[in-house]
Design brief:
Number of strands: 9
Distance between the termini: 29 Å
Strand order of the largest sheet: 5-6-7-3-8-9
Number of helices: 7
Strand content: 15-25%
Shape: globular
């Protein structure tokens, strides 16, 4: 699904490199959480996968036919811009040239937001807003779903609902999921593999091994 070889990236095009000679392979059907300290390059790696930016050296390729993307929620995500959940999703469906009028309703049903279809985006709670963004990402039936910190600014109950839904997408629908995570408990509980970034490089480990290695450390919820 995704393969990186000798991947290096610097916003300046020269040293120091955020990513330096990174090797990565994610197979179809995996649920991979990307973890690491602030500034280690997690979101940069997502941007490279999405082709928002290009490698300075090396390569990264994906054979995903369609990619859904849930960006990191900004402070202005719940602003007062007057657009309803339905209008936001309907506009996106037109952008994707989706003709099936039921897609918006089905996306809302999937994430449990049917009752909030006419609510203004700015009036939603953090959890509801995140569900709306996930619903948008699922339109067009992607085979790869990429998320950047899906639990940021989300209450505990909504976090549980979101991660249960993501796990269901992965296990029952076979969707490949790649998620940048600061929520290490969620990463350990839901992922099939964890990719730990440090010093421009990364390594894979099982959730069980990662839990044993980091259990009780101060940065567990960092």
């Amino acid at each position: 699904m995704i393969k990186a070889e000798n991947l290096s990236f610097s916003y300046s095009g020269s040293s120091p490199f955020i990513l330096n000679g990174l090797e990565l392979e994610i197979k179809d059907g995996e649920y991979v959480s990307i973890v690491g300290d602030n500034g280690c390059g997690k979101s940069t790696l997502l941007k490279l996968i999405l082709k928002f930016i290009r490698p300075t050296r090396g390569s990264i390729v994906s054979d995903a036919k369609k990619i859904g993307y849930v960006p990191q929620k900004s402070d202005g995500a719940n602003s007062g811009f007057p657009i309803t959940v339905w209008e936001m999703l309907n506009s996106y469906s037109k952008l994707l040239k989706i003709k099936d009028k039921s897609v918006v309703s089905e996306s809302l049903r999937q994430v449990g937001l049917s009752e909030h279809s006419r609510s203004l985006m700015g009036n939603l709670s953090g959890g509801q807003a995140q569900k709306a963004l996930i619903a948008r990402a699922l339109m067009g039936s992607p085979d790869l779903l990429i998320l950047d910190e899906p639990s940021a600014g989300v209450d505990i109950d909504s976090q549980r609902e979101i991660y249960a839904f993501l796990k269901k997408l992965n296990q029952e629908c076979g969707m490949t999921i790649v998620s940048v995570e600061h929520n290490l408990d969620a990463a350990i509980s839901n992922s099939t593999a964890i990719f730990h970034l440090h010093g421009g490089h990364g390594h894979f480990c099982t959730p069980e091994k990662y839990s044993a290695e980091y259990l009780g450390k101060d940065d567990r919820h960092a």
